[in-house]
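Anyone have tokens for tRNA U34 carboxymethyltransferase? Sequence:
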Amino acid sequence: MIDFRPFYKQIATTNLSAWLETLPLQLKQWQQQPHGEYEKWSKVIDFLPHLQAEHVNLKTAVMVNSTNSLSDGERQRIIYHLKQLMPWRKGPYHLHGIHIDCEWRSDFKWQRILPHLSSLKDRMILDVGCGNGYHMWRMVGEGAKMVVGIDPTALFLCQFEAVRKLLNNDRRANLIPLGIEEMQPLGAFDTVFSMGVFYHRKSPLDHLSQLKNQLTKGGELVLETLVIDGDVNSVLVPTDRYAKMKNIYFIPSVAALINWLEKIGFRNVRCVDVSTTSLHEQRKTDWLENESLVDFLDPQDNSKTIEGYPAPKRAVILAEK
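Reply: yep, here.
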């Protein structure tokens, strides 16, 4: 089982120390009611070898090479273990000569977002709904002091810890298996990211308030989410599924989303990027057994989902507390 005590020691002398009043009990409760596959997934981490890392690159990729090249047998054993953690959704990872070709080219999103951000150097960062942590490592590569990701999914935690082990147990990033609604208002993070989460929330204004409560005064929110075309009153509420997903609740226009953020009390709210998700950015790979974007779109008209809604378009909104 994954040991969170090193993280407790890390934050004990930081402005996150107040979190220790609630976090250890929450994680103890989480570990007492784990996902049925959690024990199997966590053993994968134990099976992975300790490799001497050199040439770690988190600036332009998530990449590490070994001091000594792996034999074909060693490489195939590591691939076998990592594939026990499928599906791999966010990536890609280049680890000791092994290429984990994930469903999402998450580096595309990072390239769109990074030029618009305040410098991440020496910042305390929270990544809400971080998945397996790909973007957290890129934040570390930009010089972040500490990156904390939260995501309640046990598989993503085990993927993250597997990558961490192959990155020489780098502890500048940590994944905590909780949702944002379980966090006390810490007001301690210089930057808060919420990417690919907003449309899964039943109460979008509550989510925006929860994000605001984690920021320091003057801190920056980075909100990346699905949007539709339209004016300040345009919001899509799918009747059943959107792109085959059941848990999609609100997809606003950019103007509506900016209005909501300002209503919550954010300032300097602006949209810095809008892009339609391409079949090059989200696609099937050997590291994914499930369907992907091509299966979610109308085969006769890729501008629509299979249900007839506008195809996925994503916006990046920045705002300050």
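The chain has a mean pLDDT of 97.
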